[in-house]
Design a protein that fits this description.
Arc Repressor Mutant, subunit A; D-Maltodextrin-Binding Protein, domain 2; five-stranded mixed β-sheet
Length: 316
Amino acid sequence: MKTTFFSTQIRYFLEVARTGSVSQAAAQLHVAASAVSRQVGKLEDQLGCALFERRARGMVPTDAGERLMAYARAGSDDAERVMEQVRGLAGYSARRVRVACTEGFATGFMPEVMTGFRRSHPEALIELSVGSPEAVSRLLLQGETDVALKYTMAPEKGMTVRHAATAPMYALMLPTHPLARARAVTVANVVKYPLGISAKGMTGRQLFDMVASVQGLQYQASVVSNFSSALLPSTRGDDIMLSGYLTAAHLIRQGQLVAVPFAEPELRQRVLQVLSLEGQTLAPLVLDFTAQLIAAVRESGNGMAPARRRGAKKSG
């Protein structure tokens, strides 16, 4: 059914002008001829002039009628263009997937997920927003993203948890580091080395600072950043980077870094979550992306590094 922006009077007027007959216009509009005559008469009364000359051969527009017809047809063309644009936007929305994540996922993990999804859904348009844990939650609660991936330490209101897994902190280091073969390390072990650590307010930093404070330990930071990817290249020599596994999974698989777990249970309290807005019905394409995202999280160990090889020693 064709959508129109015009009033009943204008629509009836245009149909009479097109057909040259009240009865034919009524047939096209599926209304009574009297209704067409009444609406055209009301329009003429409102404008204070005749719009048609009633002739034996039919209804012929007057000069005023010709002018109104030209204006209305121009408006109809504009309206049709607007409708086409709206339809285009609807098509745009249908193929759009809006995802948000904290920055630790944004360099290696999320690009791999997006690339894999576009192989199976080449029509998809993925909009990725990256921010702090609070910013990601805000995007979700404000309806500005469809699905989110983040670390959290407590449940959040207004969100549906579509997947959750424990995501411990790790000490990332070069394979040649003195602690690289340890089965596990303690905070007391790692504070002896220069640390690459996330900025205050990030979940990993909060946990590490809490444990260090309880144990009365101080540490020297070599690099502090709210962007984990900036820390990865700076992990050199005896440096240690504190991070979740998925932040550096691609480098760990390549053998460039190793991930050693912490012995302290407090550093295993963080949870990785895939979230959507509570009560929101996700579009089919977004559901497909969410399923693929969750599958990728599971395949990557749910935020946990592979078990340490046999022969590794516990660092005391």
